[in-house]
TrEMBL record, chain A:
GO terms assigned for molecular function: ATP binding
Entry's family note: Belongs to the ABC transporter superfamily.
Acidic residues bias spans: 276-286
Taxonomic classification: Bacteria, Bacillati, Bacillota, Bacilli, Bacillales
Region (Disordered): 273-294
Family matches, as InterPro entries: AAA+_ATPase, ABC_Ni/Peptide_Import, ABC_transporter-like_ATP-bd, ABC_transporter-like_CS, P-loop_NTPase
Name listed for the protein in its UniProt record: Nickel transport system ATP-binding protein
TrEMBL record, chain B:
GO MF terms, alphabetically ordered: ATP binding
Species assigned in the record: Paenibacillus hunanensis
Keyword Nucleotide-binding appears in the UniProt entry: yes
Keywords tagged on the record: ATP-binding, Ion transport, Nickel, Nickel transport, Nucleotide-binding, Transport
Keyword Phosphoprotein attributed: no
SMART domains for the chain: AAA (SM00382)
Domain ABC transporter as annotated: residue spans: 2-250
Highest taxon above the source species: Bacteria
Record-linked PANTHER family: TRANSPORT ATP-BINDING PROTEIN
Name of this chain's protein: Nickel transport system ATP-binding protein
Length: 294, 268
């Protein structure tokens, strides 16, 4: 009886006082401190922060992918109430494949260089469902690639990672991590290398996964547009700590931390030459129109 | 200064198991780049922007066409002559961390081109490195730090310092600011504009980000499926291009505020 209550009370992912230290020649260095995160099924938690603030490191710490001799992790990571910090490397590998999908920041590292894209899909799909035939797996792959707006998915399956552009690899990696329909998806800057047309396609597919499969998404992005579109809640990181956390509306309407305000401002001012010109043109037109009326 | 003339390229599709005709990636690309000019190169993912960048850097021989730099054909010269010319054309790429050797100090990274091309005394080399660090907004004392000690924005400054160390005539920037946060993107754009004004360098600024391209470029080329479909000298000219690929790029927007979200909830 109590079991049921505990399951309900537990978020899908929870980190408690997660911290990472780095061992250096000159002693220990705190890279992450006091990371408390909570993420429910079907929701999106955004993480923003400047380059080097520890966003990727947070993802790696959750996934147990830290450098074994250099880095030391402390604190708790719970997935559906299971304490992941106690898991062996082997158990973690199974969790990473079956329950947590990962989209890492550098797409090239996510692929085996000597295998075609098709082989990588077949291997990934079949390790988690042994009953799938190669043919069935390839069909799922084509569908996944198609959803990412990638042209010629059939041809892509026969190509090797080095034959593809940065943005294509990024989208293939996303398709690969989504095809297993994981409970949790950790997406570290999933759309940085992409133009807006492709970005929208990718974000749409992520949103569909969330709605249809109840996947929770931890979404790291430096792009506040991506956060505005996708996130329910947001954590702002700086120098290895969370400096502000709340609902996405709260963050945009009432930013507490100076750095958050700086982030919001830099986006409003510097990046809209297009709009400025449009506005100027409209103003000119209005002026001219006014003159004509008079 | 840079003259790209009727360049086409297809990568050989020679897998071990099958033989297929080569896939054309670039078709009949021609443009010129004058000294001190910044040319923005836009286009959706996979249209061949990086391939064109590599061809201009002398790293990938095109299957057809000519690339000449300062009146000399890039690919007609022997290796030795290319090595000599190569100092004039430098590059900065998107992934600032993998562009550097993690075991080298910032000073060694920035000093590498100087060591390859200029024989300087240890003291002189140190002075030049310190000068370069300051030019990109870092401190001379940062020379001893390893890449891991820098944030992405700082490391990209180090990559820029390395690129300008030999005072090149042209820098190819392939998505050089894409992985940085907005604050750093704006700062690096300002830095690039400043350096260009100081040294009269030219840039080929490859990006998928229209606004960034508009901020820094004098002229923009839009590529679609391996072809240049629009050449524009201003935002207005870009916006009035009738080509669907350009219109699609302009129209695609993310919301500025969560209340302006695109509604996807009814889609299946
Ligand atoms: N092996 C290491 N040794 C020392 N410091 C490290 C190491 N790995 C990472 N760091 C430091 O940890 C900090 C956090 O890095 P992280 O990659 O998490 O940043 P990030 O927020 O993901 O940045 P970006 O937006 O550039 O991806 C950085 O300042 C980096 O210098
Ligand atoms: N080494 C290679 N062998 C075969 N094909 C390649 C190779 N490199 C790139 N291609 C193909 O060339 C096309 C253009 O790639 P390129 O990297 O130039 O695109 P891009 O415009 O830079 O895209 P992105 O914005 O995603 O970086 C792609 O279809 C890609 O698959
Ligand atoms: Mg990162
Ligand atoms: Mg590219």
């Amino acid at each position: 009886m109590t079991g049921a209550i505990i399951v309900q009370a537990n978020p899908l992912l929870e980190t408690v006082d997660l911290a990472v230290q780095c061992r250096t020649a000159s002693g220990k260095l705190d890279l992450l401190q006091g990371i408390h995160l909570r993420l429910e099924a079907g929701r999106v938690l955004g993480i923003v922060g400047e380059s080097g603030s520890g966003k990727s490191l947070t993802c790696h710490a959750i996934l147990g992918l830290l450098h074994r001799t250099q880095m030391q992790r402390s604190g708790q990571v719970r997935l559906q109430g299971q304490e992941l910090t106690n898991y062996s490397e082997r158990q973690m590998r199974r969790v990473r494949g079956a329950q947590i999908g990962t989209i890492l920041q550098n797409p090239m590292n996510a692929f085996m260089p000597l295998h075609t894209i098709g082989t990588q899909f077949v291997q990934t799909l079949r390790t988690h469902d042994g009953t799938l035939s190669r043919r069935q797996a390839l069909r799922i792959a084509v569908e996944g690639l198609d959803n990412m707006g990638l042209p010629h998915p059939q041809r892509l399956l026969r190509q090797y990672p080095f034959q593809l552009s940065g943005g294509m690899l990024q989208r293939i990696m996303i398709a690969l991590s989504m095809c297993l329909k994981p409970k949790l998806l950790i997406a570290d800057e999933p759309t940085t290398a992409l133009d807006l047309v492709s970005q929208l396609q990718v974000l749409r597919a992520l949103d569909r996964l969330r709605r249809e499969c109840g996947t929770a998404i931890l979404l790291v992005s430096h792009d506040l547009g991506v956060i505005a579109q996708m996130a329910d809640d947001v954590a702002v990181m700086r120098h290895g700590r969370i400096v502000e956390q709340g609902s996405v509306h709260q963050l945009f309407d009432d930013p507490q931390h100076e750095y958050t305000r700086l982030l919001l401002d830099s986006r409003m001012t510097a990046y809209h030459p297009l709009e400025q010109e449009q506005e100027q043109e409209q103003e000119q037109e209005q002026e001219q129109g006014g003159r004509r009326d008079a | 200064m840079l003259d790209v003339s009727q360049v086409s390229h297809s990568y050989a599709a020679g897998g071990r198991l099958w033989r297929k005709p080569a896939i054309p990636v670039l078709q009949d690309i021609s443009f010129t780049l004058e000294p001190g000019m910044c040319l923005g190169l836009l286009g959706v993912s996979g249209t061949g922007k990086s391939t064109l960048g590599k061809i201009i850097l002398g790293l990938q021989r095109p299957t057809a066409g000519r690339v000449s730099f300062a009146g000399q054909d890039w690919y007609a010269r022997d290796r030795r002559a290319r090595h000599h010319m190569r100092r004039e054309v430098q590059a900065v790429f998107q992934d600032c961390y993998s562009a550097v050797n993690p075991l080298m100090s910032a000073g060694q990274i920035i000093g590498e081109p100087l060591r390859n091309y200029e024989r300087l005394s240890a003291l002189e080399q140190k002075r030049r490195v310190a000068e370069l660090l300051e030019q990109v907004g870092l401190q001379a004392s940062d020379a001893d730090k390893r890449p891991a000690a820098f944030s992405g924005g700082q490391l990209q400054r180090i990559n820029i310092a390395r690129a300008i160390a030999l005072r090149p005539k042209l820098i190819v920037l392939d998505e050089a600011i894409s992985s940085l946060d907005m604050v750093n993107q704006t700062q690096i754009l300002t830095l690039l504009s400043q350096l260009r004004a100081d040294y009269g360098m030219s840039y080929l600024f490859i990006t998928h980000h229209i606004q960034a391209a508009l901020t820094i470029s004098d002229r923009m080329l839009v590529m679609d499926k391996g072809q240049i479909v629009c050449t524009a000298d201003s935002a207005a000219a870009l916006m009035s291009s009738p080509h669907p690929a350009v219109q699609q790029l302009i129209a695609a927007r993310l919301p500025e505020h969560p209340s302006q979200r695109l509604d996807w909830s009814s889609e299946t």
